[in-house]
Every structure is written in structure tokens, then in C-alpha cells.
């Protein structure tokens, strides 16, 4: 018989500490849907996804009921649409098709309105990127991402320049809805092919035809575990996080293999991420504060986050047969109650967040910036972030939301998991325009002589 | 398949009898019971075999949940694998 304390621990994690499976994401390849006639291509896309993912939501709900563990999101990621758009036609038609798929299947997001241009643009890439503002404004459940750099190929600064403009246009075209388009748009360096989390999920070309990934969550569980270790040294803190991450990941592994079995689709990976939500008790910032920082954002934050990120991975790796995705601690500002408070009080600044992204799992995430921020400054923010990822061989990303018509200190509110938060200050006194306008490519970094 | 029925709440007369009655009604065989009372809080964990269930899992689970709501208890029905996978390697 199971130990009653173990059972109570699990139940407590779910009922009191917000333990959940954040997402079951089905990755579907659309390469076989490409057709020179875009209408036929769209029909094939609709048919293939609805056929494979028709039962995804129901299966998720069944598992949730039987195992008693909440599964918050059921999602789909698809082959970067730029690969289909290479055959010509208006890429927005694909966005409309994917929205129809989302409505039919009941999933809450479909990711993959994407282009991979880290070394240069091929047919379809530029057309797709330029269509992003329109695509995101006329759809509700479609997410877009663009990979503009990698450690192996350097940073495509033509794409960086273009993305600064695209982010701004997306904000402008959705200005009457709190600029929500930008919350569904990520600019990556070193994007991963098996990420189950939005907005950056897409189904890489190296992946199988159809696969199921799982993303776990559980910042509240880690925080609660650390509360029981108020005076331990940092070695003990790391050990506590590892043990907790192990348990959380086991849930992900169980749900992933079960979903794979029921859907008749291979199991892909567990993404061992600590993904916060705006709910109280579900915050990564509060974990850092539990470690002993008075507030997130002060000196010491980067070190604490580095410890957390590493311990989560070490604990999770052994708990799963296959780990992948972004795996680590996310730091999306508007989706994390502790980050929101720290940003409001002025303790957490954009510059500190940038430093934190060197050691966290992704990058500058869900950050509202003043509406007056020009496109070249957004490009410069993207370039800085991509450089951190490129040099450190890690994924970095930028998801900033220019709050059109609003200033630093005011607030944006997206609702739901996307949360709300203050508009953060951006240094606009001097311009990076001449640097950004040079465009071209930043060469790939040396992989030796590491200092 | 085995499920863990957990009951948490204020101690009162007849809790086990009410929960067992629902098990019997639905055809769930009780394999093991552990219970304790910690500072007035009643905690019971019941392992049940539901291979011979005469209703759907959802109905069984809903009946337990409703019993919990009626008696001011937190009753959950969860597949035993969730605990096995979390606490056993």
C-alpha cells in the first residue's frame, strides 16, 4: 500500500500549490500538405490536423479526470508555415485555416506561423514575416515565431531589423485590444524544434510526422518545498529544488506516455519548465524571494535564477525518458505575480531582466514597453538578446509588447494566462539606429578559446 | 485498474460507512484502507479495485465528489499510477 504521507503530499501539491500539467501539445508535420495551389494546400492542412488532433482535447480531459491532475492547455504545433508559403499565395490564408482548425478541435493555441531565417531568407520567408501583423490581428488562437539567429550561423541582422518593424506594426494593428498581437509573437535565437510552450512552439522539420509533447509546471510546489528549508545553505536549496523537480517531471512523463498511448501517436518530450501564471502561489519570482532575496530584480537575482534553472534540469532529467523543449525556469513578466510586483515597484528593470536571460531557460518574455519605442530600438533589444543566446549556446527569445499610446508606468491587461503588468522603462535617450540600419549578418562565434 | 480514494475533512461519525456505501453501490472493491485523525482533521486513504465497476469511472468519481460536497469533505478519486510514478522509482 502506498504511504499515506506520500499520497497527502501529492494531493497537497495539486490542491494547494498549483501543481498542474501546463500543456499537452501535439506536433504535426504539414510538409505533405504543400501544394502549388494554396487553396488545396489549406484544405489539406485542415484535413490533416483535424484528423490527427480531433480527439486531443477530449483525451486531455479524460486523463485529467482519471488521474486527478489538472491539464491546463491542449495545443497544437505545426511545421513552420513559411515552408508551405514557399509555394506562393497569400500566407494569411494559412493563418485563417489554422484558426478554423483551432475552432474545430477546441485547442487554445496553434503555434507555427513561423519562419526560420537565422542565415537568410528563402522563398516564402519574407512574405510570411511581413504578413505576421495581419495574421495575428485577424486570428485569436494562432501564435507566431521567427528564428533570427543561432550559435552555428550567427545573427541575421536583416531579419532583426525587419522584426523590429513587424513587432511594432503588430502592436499598432491590435492597439485597440491592448496590443495583444505581440503577446502571440516571439523572436528566437537558437529556437528548439520540440517546444510545447506558446507562443514559440512549432514542429521542427527533424521531428516525426506526429508526436505528443508535454510541458509541466509547478513554481508553487518548488516555493512550498523551499519554505520548509528556511535556513539551509544553497547546496541544500539546490537539493530541495532537484527533488521537487523530479516529482513534478514524473507527472509529466506519466501524462505524456498515457496521452501518447491513447492518441496512438509517439511520445516526444517532457519540457521540464517552471512556467508561472499570474495566480498567487504560482510565481518564479517568489521562489527567488524564498531563497532569500528581498525582492526579485535586486543584485543576487541572476545567481539565484542560475541555481534554480540548473537544479530544475538536474532534478527533471532523471524523471523522464526524454527531455527537451525549453526546459528551465521561465521569467515572463506579465504572467508572474512576483515579477509584476517587482516591475511595479521599480526593483525589476529591463536591464536586469536581460542579465537574467543569460541563465534562465528562454529570454525577455511578456514585457510591456512604452508605445513610443521606435522599431530600431526593438530591433536592438532583439539583437542584444540574440547575442546572449548565440554566444552562450542557449535559446533566447524576445516577446515584448509595445503599448501603443501608453507610457512607462501605465498598465496593459491581456487577461487569462497572459496576465497583466506595468509598462517597463526603456532607455530611449540615444538611438541605435545607425547600427541596426547597417543590417547584414553578425558572424557565428568561435567555439573555442572560451573566456 | 486501482484508484486511490482520498477523504479529507472534519472528523464526524459515519464517514467511512458513507464512502464504503458508494463503493459498494458502484461495484468498487476496497483493497486497503488507511486512516488517521490529525488535530480534528480526518484523513482517509482507500485503495479500490475498479475493474468490476457497474458504472463509468466518471460517474463513480462524480458520486464521490458529490458525497464530499454534501458532507463538507474533500473527496478525490485518482488513478494509483499518479502516486506510484511520483513516489517510486
Describe, in short, the structure shown.
The complex is a heterodimer of chains A (451) and B (89). Chain A is built from 15 helices and 15 strands. With 451 residues, chain A is α/β, with parallel strands linked by helices.
Explain what you see.
The complex is a heterodimer of chains A (451) and B (89). Chain A is α/β, with parallel strands linked by helices and 451 residues long. Chain A folds into 2 domains: 23-189, Anaerobic Ribonucleotide-triphosphate Reductase Large Chain, CATH 3.20.70.20; 216-437, Anaerobic Ribonucleotide-triphosphate Reductase Large Chain. Chain A is 43% helix and 18% strand. In chain A, strands 1, 2, 3, 4, 5, 6, 7, 8, 11, 12 and 15 form an 11-stranded mixed β-sheet that branches. Chain A is globular and about 60 Å long. Chain B starts with a strand and ends with a helix. Chain B has 89 residues and is an alpha+beta fold. Chain B has a single domain, classed as ACT domain (Alpha-Beta Plaits), CATH 3.30.70. Chain B is 37% helix and 39% strand. A 4-stranded antiparallel β-sheet of chain B has the order 2-3-1-4, with helices on both faces. Chain B is globular. Chain B contains 3 helices and 4 strands. In chain B, helix 1 (15-26) packs antiparallel against helix 2 (57-70). Chains A and B meet through helix 1, helix 3 and helix 9 of A and strand 1, strand 2, strand 3, helix 2 and strand 4 of B.
CATH topology of chain B: Alpha-Beta Plaits
Strand-residue proportion of chain A: 15-25%
Which range best describes the helical content of chain A: under 10%, 10-25%, 25-40%, 40-55%, 55-70% or over 70%?
40-55%
Provide the low-confidence segments of chain A as ranges.
none
Number of helices of chain A: 15
Q: What do the pLDDT scores of chain A average to?
A: 94
The neighbouring-strand order within the major sheet of chain B is: 2-3-1-4
Number of helices of chain B: 3
Count of distinct strands of chain B: 4
The pair of chains with the biggest contact is: A-B, 21 and 25 residues
Order of helices and strands of chain B: EHEEHEH
Amino acid at each position: 500500500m502506498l504511504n499515506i504521507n506520500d499520497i497527502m503530499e501529492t494531493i497537497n501539491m495539486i490542491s494547494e500549490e498549483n501543481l498542474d500539467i501546463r500543456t499537452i501539445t501535439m506536433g504535426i508535420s504539414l510538409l505533405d500538405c504543400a501544394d502549388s495551389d494554396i487553396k488545396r494546400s489549406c484544405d489539406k492542412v485542415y484535413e490533416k490536423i483535424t484528423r490527427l488532433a480531433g480527439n486531443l482535447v477530449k483525451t486531455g480531459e479524460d486523463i485529467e479526470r482519471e488521474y486527478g491532475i489538472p491539464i491546463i492547455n491542449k495545443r497544437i504545433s505545426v511545421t513552420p508555415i513559411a515552408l508551405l508559403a514557399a509555394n506562393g499565395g497569400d500566407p494569411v490564408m494559412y493563418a485563417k485555416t489554422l484558426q478554423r482548425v483551432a475552432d474545430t478541435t477546441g485547442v487554445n493555441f496553434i503555434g507555427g506561423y513561423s519562419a526560420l531565417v537565422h542565415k537568410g531568407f528563402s522563398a516564402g520567408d519574407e512574405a510570411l514575416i511581413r504578413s505576421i501583423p495581419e495574421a495575428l490581428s485577424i486570428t485569436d488562437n494562432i501564435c507566431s515565431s521567427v528564428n533570427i539567429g543561432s550559435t552555428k550561423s550567427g545573427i541575421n541582422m536583416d531579419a532583426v531589423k525587419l522584426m523590429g518593424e513587424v513587432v511594432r506594426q503588430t502592436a499598432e494593428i491590435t492597439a485597440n485590444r491592448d496590443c495583444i498581437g505581440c503577446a502571440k509573437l516571439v523572436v528566437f535565437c537558437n529556437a528548439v524544434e520540440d517546444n510545447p510552450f506558446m507562443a514559440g512552439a512549432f514542429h521542427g522539420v527533424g521531428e516525426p510526422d506526429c508526436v505528443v509533447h508535454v510541458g509541466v509546471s509547478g513554481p508553487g510546489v518548488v516555493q512550498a518545498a523551499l519554505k520548509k528549508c528556511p535556513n539551509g545553505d544553497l547546496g541544500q536549496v539546490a537539493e530541495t529544488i532537484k527533488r521537487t523537480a523530479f516529482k513534478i517531471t514524473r507527472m509529466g512523463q506519466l501524462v505524456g506516455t498515457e496521452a501518447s498511448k491513447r492518441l496512438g501517436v509517439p511520445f516526444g518530450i517532457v519540457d521540464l519548465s517552471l512556467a508561472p501564471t499570474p495566480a498567487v502561489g504560482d510565481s518564479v519570482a517568489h521562489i527567488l524571494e524564498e531563497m532569500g532575496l528581498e525582492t526579485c530584480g535586486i543584485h543576487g537575482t541572476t545567481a539565484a535564477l542560475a541555481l534554480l534553472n540548473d537544479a530544475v534540469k538536474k532534478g527533471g532529467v532523471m524523471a523522464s525518458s526524454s527531455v527537451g523543449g525549453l526546459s528551465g525556469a521561465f521569467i515572463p513578466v506579465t504572467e508572474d505575480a512576483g515579477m509584476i510586483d517587482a516591475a511595479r515597484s521599480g526593483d525589476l528593470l529591463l536591464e536586469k531582466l536581460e542579465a537574467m536571460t543569460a541563465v534562465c531557460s528562454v529570454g525577455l518574455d511578456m514585457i510591456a514597453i512604452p508605445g513610443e519605442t521606435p522599431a530600431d530600438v526593438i530591433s536592438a533589444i532583439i539583437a542584444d538578446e540574440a547575442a546572449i543566446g548565440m554566444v552562450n549556446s542557449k535559446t533566447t527569445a524576445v516577446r515584448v509588447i509595445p503599448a501603443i499610446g501608453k507610457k512607462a508606468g501605465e498598465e496593459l491587461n491581456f487577461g487569462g494566462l497572459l496576465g497583466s503588468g506595468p509598462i517597463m522603462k526603456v532607455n530611449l535617450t540615444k538611438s541605435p539606429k545607425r547600427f541596426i540600419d547597417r543590417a547584414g549578418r553578425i558572424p557565428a562565434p568561435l567555439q573555442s578559446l572560451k573566456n | 485498474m486501482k484508484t486511490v480514494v482520498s477523504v479529507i475533512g472534519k472528523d464526524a461519525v459515519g464517514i467511512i460507512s458513507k464512502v464504503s456505501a458508494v463503493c459498494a453501490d458502484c461495484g468498487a472493491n476496497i483493497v486497503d484502507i488507511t486512516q488517521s485523525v490529525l488535530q480534528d482533521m480526518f484523513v482517509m486513504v482507500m485503495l479500490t479495485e475498479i475493474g468490476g465497476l457497474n458504472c463509468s469511472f466518471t460517474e463513480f468519481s462524480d458520486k464521490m465528489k458529490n458525497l464530499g460536497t454534501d458532507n463538507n469533505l474533500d473527496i478525490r478519486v485518482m488513478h494509483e499510477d499518479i502516486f506510484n510514478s511520483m513516489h517510486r522509482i
